[in-house]
């Protein structure tokens, strides 16, 4: 695996680990200070890591005893020098305190990342689910 | 305006012009052959310009006498050398044959673009609307 690939992998693995541990600090470190987030839920856009941090904090706090296992499929990576773009299908699985998978939801994920020395920071995140034409509801399972 | 900025602007203006003219050829020329599209509507992912072309053709055909005026706000551009990422709020306004604005819908738009000589091709597109927590419906107006 090239340096580039392994650095990108570090961000993906860092994201999964931070969500599973509900570790807000580790999570937000993956992002650039000026990140622009188009999140799947409720709000059009968040500007800056401080605004995004608040939402992540609320998300982790809302989980109670549960935790969330993130997995990614169909990961495409483009770029190399100073900028990279990742697109993927993400599954967020709710895990009970006894280790059971109690629910799961899928999203499309796009990350634009900028090189910061030897590592990469997310400068733009876009997550979503496709919208059903007929009832305008989000489709949250890929089946 | 730098060469970079004006080249990026060309893609934005090319997109608006192709949609307004319902010109499938001009539209699809903006995209890389291997483009991956996460479209707001119905389907999780389209792979390749040929698959995307079919959807665009259906979209334009479905408009009948109407046309669609695209406008973009809050456009952020990052990158420079071989890769650029654009994020923006897009309004798609339906215009009647007599020139009246009959409806409008908003989307978040992300484009990853690769340099192809003197121009740029879209290698990844992600459009979406945020999902309301309570009824799981897409929010299609930003107000």
Structure in a nutshell:
The first copy, chain A, is of the alpha+beta class and 143 residues long. In chain A, 27% of the residues lie in helices and 43% in strands. Chain A has a single domain (3-128), classed as Nuclear Transport Factor 2, Chain: A, CATH 3.10.450.
Structure explained in plain terms:
- Two copies of one chain form a homodimer.
- With 143 residues, chain A is an alpha+beta fold.
- Chain A has a single domain, classed as Nuclear Transport Factor 2, Chain: A (Roll), CATH 3.10.450.
- Chain A contains three helices and six strands.
- The first copy, chain A, has helices at residues 3-21, 24-28, 49-62, and strands at 31-38, 46-47, 67-79, 83-95, 101-116, 119-128.
- Chain A has a six-stranded mixed beta sheet with strand order 2-1-6-5-4-3, with helices on one face.
- In chain A, strand 4 and strand 5 form a beta hairpin.
- The longest helix of chain A is centred in the N-terminal third of the chain and has 19 residues, at 3-21.
- Chain A is globular, with a radius of gyration of 15 Å.
- The model of chain A has no long low-confidence stretch (mean pLDDT 95).
- Chain A binds chain B through residues 36, 38-45, 74, 76, 78-79, 81-85, 87, 89, 106, 108, 110, 112, 114, 123-124, 126, 128-133, 135-140, 142, and chain B through 36, 38-45, 74, 76, 78-85, 87, 89, 106, 108, 110, 112, 114, 123-124, 126, 128-133, 135-140, 142.
């Amino acid at each position: 695996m090239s340096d580039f690939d392994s650095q990108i992998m570090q961000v993906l693995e860092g994201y999964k680990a931070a969500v599973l541990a509900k570790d807000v600090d580790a999570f937000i470190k993956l992002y650039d200070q000026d990140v622009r987030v188009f999140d799947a839920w409720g709000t059009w856009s968040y500007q800056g890591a401080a605004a995004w941090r608040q939402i992540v904090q609320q998300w982790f706090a809302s989980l109670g005893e549960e935790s969330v296992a993130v997995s990614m499929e169909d990961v495409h990576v483009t770029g190399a020098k100073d900028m990279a773009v990742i697109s993927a299908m993400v599954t967020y699985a709710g895990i009970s305190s006894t280790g059971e998978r109690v629910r799961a939801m899928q999203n499309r994920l796009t990350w634009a990342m900028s090189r910061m020395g030897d590592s990469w920071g997310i400068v733009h995140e876009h997550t979503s689910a496709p919208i059903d034409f007929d009832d305008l509801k989000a489709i949250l399972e890929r089946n």
